[in-house]
C-alpha cells in the first residue's frame, strides 16, 4: 500500500542522502512531498549534485497528512532545527509513533525536537555526543531501528541498509 512520506529539507542537504532514499521509496510505490521554508523555492545540495524544488511550505502542511517523515543529512537539519515550526512538525510524528527516517546529521533536528530520549539511534560520528547528552542510546551501526519506528543510519555508505529498512517499515 502506498504511503505518503514528508521530507523536511533545505539548502546544503547531503545530495545522495535525499536522492537515494527518494528513488528507493518511489520505486516501492510511495509518494514523497518535500517541505521547506517556502514552496517553489529551489534548494541545492551541498555537493551541487542535486537540487530540489520545495513542494510545500512548512506553513501549509500538517503531520496528519503523512505516514512517515524523512530527514536527510548534510547542513539542512541544522538550519531546520532553529525553526519551531519544523520542531513541532517533527515532534508530532514521534508523538503519534509514525516512522521517522533519519540519516547522518538528521538527528540534530530530532535532538532539538526533544524526541530522542531513551531511543536507540545512530548518526554521523560528530553528532553522537549530542545524542548521548540528549538521553538517546547511541549505536555505531549502519542502521538502527528503534521500537518507536525511528530508523537511523550514519553516512552515505549506509544507504543500502537504510533504504531497505525504510521500504520494509512502510510495507508492514
Description:
With 172 residues, the protein is of the alpha/beta class. It has one domain: 3-Layer(aba) Sandwich (Rossmann fold). Helix content is 32%, strand content 22%. The chain is built from six helices and eleven strands. It has helices spanning 15-27, 76-80, 84-95, 107-112, 128-133, 159-171, and strands spanning 4-8, 31-36, 42-44, 51-53, 56-57, 68-71, 100-103, 120-121, 137-138, 144-145, 150-153. α1 (15-27) packs parallel to α6. The protein is globular. The model has no long low-confidence stretch (mean pLDDT 97). Keywords: Hydrolase, Protease.
Q: Topology of this protein?
A:
Elements: E1 4-8, H1 15-27, E2 31-36, E3 42-44, E4 51-53, E5 56-57, E6 68-71, H2 76-80, H3 84-95, E7 100-103, H4 107-112, E8 120-121, H5 128-133, E9 137-138, E10 144-145, E11 150-153, H6 159-171
Helix pairs in contact: 1-6
Family: Belongs to the peptidase C56 family.
GO molecular function: peptidase activity
Protein name: Protease I
Amino acid at each position: 500500500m502506498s504511503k505518503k512520506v514528508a521530507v523536511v529539507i533545505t539548502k546544503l542537504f547531503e545530495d545522495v542522502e535525499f536522492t537515494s532514499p527518494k528513488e528507493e521509496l518511489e520505486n516501492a510505490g510511495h509518494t514523497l512531498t518535500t517541505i521547506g521554508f517556502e514552496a517553489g523555492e529551489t534548494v541545492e545540495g551541498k555537493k551541487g549534485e542535486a537540487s530540489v524544488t520545495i513542494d510545500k511550505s512548512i506553513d501549509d502542511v500538517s503531520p496528519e497528512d503523512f505516514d512517515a517523515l524523512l530527514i536527510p543529512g548534510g547542513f539542512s537539519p541544522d538550519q531546520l532545527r532553529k525553526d519551531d515550526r519544523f520542531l513541532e512538525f517533527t515532534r508530532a510524528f514521534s508523538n503519534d509513533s509514525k516512522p521517522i527516517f533519519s540519516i547522518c546529521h538528521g538527528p540534530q533536528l530530532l535532538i532539538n525536537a526533544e524526541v530522542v530520549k531513551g531511543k536507540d539511534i545512530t548518526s554521523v560520528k560528530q553528532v553522537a555526543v549530542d545524542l548521548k547528552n540528549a538521553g538517546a542510546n547511541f549505536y555505531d551501526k549502519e542502521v538502527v531501528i528503534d521500537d518507536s519506528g525511528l530508523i537511523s543510519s550514519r553516512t552515505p555508505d549506509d544507504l543500502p541498509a537504510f533504504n531497505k529498512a525504510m521500504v520494509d517499515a512502510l510495507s508492514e
